[in-house]
Amino acid sequence: MVQPAEQVYTGRTESRLTGAYLVIALLALFVGVVTGLFQALSHAGVNLYPQLTPVVASYYQGLTVHGVMNALVWTTFFICGFLQFVATRAFGLPLASRTLAWMTYGLMTGGLVLAAIPLLGNAATVMFTFYPPLQAHWAFYVGLTLVVVGTWLVTLNLVLTYRTWRAQHPGERTPLAAFMTLITFAMWSIASLGLAAEMLLMLIPWSLGWQRGTDPLLARTLFWFTGHPIVYFWLLPTYISWYTLVPRQAGGKLFSDPMARGSFILFLLLSTPVGMHHQFTDPGIGQGWKLTHAFLTFAVFFPSLLTFFNVVASLESGARTRGGRGLLVWFAKLPWSDPSLTAQVLAMLLFAFGGIGGLVNASYSLNLVVHNTAYIVGHFHLTVGTAVTLSFMGITYWLVPVLRGRGLWSPRLALVQSWLWFIGMGLFSFALHDLGILGMPRRTMMSAAPYIQPEWQALRPLVGIGGSILFVSALLYFLNMLLTCVASHAPAPETPAFAEVLSGPEEGPAILDCWRPWLVFTVILLILAYGHPLVHLVSNTPLNVPGMRVW
Amino acid sequence: MNKHATLYLYELAWMLPSVALPVGMLAALAVTAFGAHIGLPGEAGRVDPAAVMQTAPFNQPGVVEIAPGRYEAHLVAGIWFFNPPEIRVPEGSEVTFVATSKDVIHGFLVRAANINAMLLPGQITRVTARFDRAGTYPFLCHEYCGIAHHTMSGKVIVEPRS
Rounded to whole angstroms, how far apart are CA atoms A57 and A36? Predict the structure, then answer.
């Protein structure tokens, strides 16, 4: 029996599962946003931390909570919910095992609670990067590891679902959103091995007292093995919405399915063998390896350039069906009254600057200007903080109503929220980029620093103002979400259908729907980029650095 | 021209500059890194973190002249200080900083001299810079290292040639 590849599957279990993940994700985002406000004010010279004790013990505890909740929890839980929803609808099939799906959710939530206890209790004020010799309570490391293990189980469930689909559809191209979901989780499962090794072989035994010492350089190298591809774990689900849903929301079609598939395959190959660009200023790693990773980082920029072209061309196809004319002015004819579309298009606009900033960071010697400065903070608020977060918010503007069975409480408020985020983030991030070039450090309580440079003074208030606008935008977002769930009487929308394509999957070569060659290439590239450095580090590293709790 | 050929040509017209741009930027980088000798910290040896204060050169933090106009600054970072917090050299000097941490990971940023390096316990960091202009070059720790991280700073004072 052949089923149409895009039949609309309305599985209730998957809807409940997605809703369960979103509840945790949104709670995490709320906590992350509240802590963020006080950091932005500190940059502007306003120190409210004495008023926040004992709930928040210090700027640094608040910052750790902010990083963990925003960069690790909001993202991971949203992605597991959203992609399981999208993939099952693309396949037209339920998840292979509902039991596994709910057990995984329990494992991930349990891990989060375990990590949150020391985190909120100021026993894990080590930033979301937790570099040793800073040593947190063991429950922090164990809890986060359980969350990562959960993502591997999500991968397993999706792979089993794909096998069922493939058995029913031999020779057909995998539906695009499902293919992209599988790539995302395959890439992440490989990438997370670095973090898993760091946790299981170093940080957990060390924090439990089974190992006396550890090594900071080996730990950092394993962390950043995962730490760069994690940003693609965040970005690829964003791209899935931009490629498979936004074109239809814009009134048009996806320009090229084969190019989209190709770009995701390139992300599978190139997301992980680049992590040393986060270690350009580290001692103990040779310049040759750093240059190799710089080269590969420029290579991974290529699929984002392909995405830029394909997504903009798709938006253009929508704007032109709505009467858009001219070389650039068609942009105004996009359906700007749709908050889900507006949020995601605004996210794309700011992301362009985030991408350019990323190129600066990756530019080997230019990294000497920006490493560990406020420039980096400006950069990642444009990328994970806007491209990913504002797009995810835009997705929730249809997803939460669909899951809840009630229409969005106020589309107008959602539009205001999106524009406020765009304006606030533009101001916030512009000021931080500039401050970074002028040498202001990141991860530092600026309201208490004795070395403020005169050239920073004009820009610091802008960080506070931008951050405050972002906070207001977030409050409006949560208000809208809450009222949608409990008070809206508007009719629930239909689940958006996947976009049609101008250049379809059959136009691309069959190798774009294969797995084995690409997985093999991925492993080969990883061995080339990390094999020798890791073997060298592991075989020459005494684990002799003791842990310290310095907060 | 049929629709598929047109779409394919648009794709190609985008892909070619998308490859050329990163390749060009990378070539520019290679020229600056190797032609202009702007290097990143590399492998410079290890030190036993438990015995840093007894191990040369960290047992004598400070500045030594190793040749006319060339200096080595032996620097130890710890919670929450740089030792020495003040480094004095004459205008026109080339200074190699030989540094490490005695406890957690610290950073070393001398913005006005383009020095940016991580200081890891167990690792030796070597970075070299020229100080051609007299003046004060503040430096600070830019890696979170605990509750008083924001107080960690120092300065290089470059004295004018009299």
Answer: 15
